Amino acid sequence: MPLQDNKTGDVLISELAAGFIQHAESRNMDKADVGHFKTTIGYLVEVYGGLSVNEFSPKKLKIVRDQMVKAGTLSRPMINKYVGKIRTIFSWGIAEEVINPNIEHSLRALKALRKGEQGTIDRPPRKNVSDHVVERTLPFLSPTVSAMVQLQRMAGMRPSEIFCMRVGDIDRSRGNGLWYYMPGSYKTERYVGAIEFPFGEAEQKLIAPYLEGKKPSDSVFSPRQAVQERRDRERAERKSKRTPSQAERDRQRAKNPADRMGDFYDKSSYWRAVQHGIKKGNQHLPDEEQIPHWSPYQLRHLTHTPLSEPKDEIAKQKWSEKVEALKAQALAEFYKSFDSEVLKELQSVAHYLVIGIDSDVTPNSKDIRIQFVLVYDLHNEMPLHWTGKTYPQPKERDCLIKMPIDTHFIQDRIGGKKLAVFGCHDLSIFNPRHQRHFSPFDDERRNVKHKDKTAAGKIKCEFIDATLDFNPDIMLQLPHSEGTWAAKWTTLNKWLQRKKGKELQHFATGLKINSKMKYSLSGTQRGDVMNFVNGQWIK
After folding, report:
1. What range does the domain containing 39 cover?
2. Is the model's pTM score more than 0.85?
């Protein structure tokens, strides 16, 4: 709503702040953002609420910032963020024509606090909570909160995406065995657009009880239900008789349950519910088995599997289950992209389709991802084999789930031939510049540290040896980008010739189209293979 000048002919900072909050709430600004603005305004109005907006200056902004620092509760990055919000409030006032435009520009003269400045707090990076700690906590949580924690961990969601979940946000109608959760809003929406979380059998089993008998607008996980679960459990565990006062209190709560809680969790109530479970668990556990404190914000990246297949059998089973869930998600994306007409056209010219499907397509993302390669049987209309990228690029070493090396090799399932399938960058193990260090011939592996002492060396040498020992008849690679792949094919053929006495008769690198609309990577295709690019067959 427009601001009106007061009797002095000017607008006070307190009035500007109140008007901005009304504006933010009328525009359906994210509740978390509104909360941050209210916190910022608290500091601003406490010091200069009675001051005219046109008397505010960079020096006064610095005084407000100093108050934030002295409070000792905000980290340095958060203080810088709140200072930016004060500038946003004044920028809105300029749009309302109640502030001199030069004021907001002058406020930019105050530079951000730098790391290490006196009095500021830089908190350590948030670390993932271990799986073991979460498992020990679950028995002490209410069934609702336990389901929230497990679902968040399995699906890799932020806490806000869990506690804002509505029944109507879950699509159960696609008929492919998966449910899809589409959040109404989320943190990175402005950058990545719409997202959806596929729920497999395990996730469906967790949330199904919380969908029954509810309207689309109802919350999936209700704090009211969680509190009732906790009270029921406490009542069942109670050894003494319930007193009349307790019975009366229960009757009053039943009459007006909305007095004490809302329909949805928020970040504070979700956090408190987890802390309550930890506290309760520690009351029953011996000192040496106490549960360390953790929060739901430490769960998200725990979701994803280890980057390599674990050796421990239990961990290996969990790893396999997670990869299978990611395969189901990838297969759903495949069927979404390849409808029946496209598959019918493919069937007319080929027996098998090999295609790459990534679990994360966000540029430069540091999120854990997997890059699948699917071998699809066109005539039987079913997946034949799954593999994926194993040898990561340097920027992916901390975020790529590496597929086991043996998944790259398919024996006697493609017309009796031996097929090797590589993901993007996997062919780089045959980079001719690295022949001295990674040659498959022991007398030429001159630098031992590359083979035995580095992670890249261990993967590369094992991968090379496995490929040459398998001795493929057909080999396919699915790259994301152009590169000197022809040189790597040449090295592979040279080593096969030397070790096995033969070269590959059929191989191909997936093609890309460059800016001049010419097919690149020519010379990286031989034999009875072809590429399907932008609706055209390239043989």
Report:
1. 13-107
2. no
